[in-house]
Amino acid sequence: KLTGLPLQPAITPELVQGRVHLKCSYSPRSPEPPVQYRVLWSRLSSAGRREQLRQETTPQPFSHVEVDGANLRLGDTVFCTVTAFRRGTPEQQSLPEDSKGFYAGIKFLPESLEIAEDGKEHVLTVLSTVPIACPGQEDSCRITLQLSTEDLGKRSQAPGPPDIALSACQVDLLPGPCSGSSCAAATVAVTAVTDFAQDGNRRSRLRARPAAPRDVLWRAYTPGDVQVTVRDLPTGNCYSFTDPHIITFDGWRYDSYKIGTFLLCRSDSRPFEVHVRQWDCGGHRSATACNCGVAAR
């Protein structure tokens, strides 16, 4: 009768006496629930295999394991596997059920970005899946993440200067109640740098590193990077040259022989404009003007 018992184990983070723990809960729906559970905690190794952390037998419908920085560290993906049986008849047991993998550490939402060189801001959420704990330092409790970017270039090119810009150089994760898989969150805006170059799509990465954390748990942790793909957009060109011949963005051509200061172009969507100053350069024979100064904002 135990083989079809749905236990549905799930892992949630919580603080126990100021220390970070993971809690595996399971909810049998049998009218006569079994009184014993065998809970196996494991984590994913770097080779992608499950490594056993600990095992216990308990009558409680939950089990805890501490993220202590030694056996279980930030950056680990953790599972709990639960088997139910009745006391005195351990041979009559349910099929073991796995929880979903729980990643303990920093996550980014979305996990990757594809943006264009159009000046638009894209919001990236940085969140901690575990509680922020600072025993004895509650007044100034926070985890500060230092943000940096690196341009990976195209596969055939060496890395160059950053291709993305951030709205902040650091964000603070403050302690608070956990909701779902988020125990603390902050946001940063990411914008593609408009470089006016036909350089194809480029890849960058965004890094977040804990800045001088007091907690040893965070001191040994390096969060994963976020990959940002910047989609190249064609660049518009306009010209004003010699006496002066003008070619507009959409290809119209005309001449301007006036003397004075003029608005050459202005954007309706962003604070950008170009002024040009034209002086008489034709002498007495002809009325001709030439560019002698330019100002851009």
From TrEMBL:
It holds the Pfam family Ig_VWDE. Keywords: Disulfide bond, Signal. GO terms for molecular function: signaling receptor binding. Residues 236-297 form the VWFD domain. GO terms for cellular component: cell surface; extracellular region. PROSITE patterns: VWFD (PS51233). Signal peptide: none annotated. PANTHER family: EGF-LIKE-DOMAIN, MULTIPLE 7, 8, VON WILLEBRAND FACTOR D AND EGF DOMAIN-CONTAINING PROTEIN. This is VWDE protein.
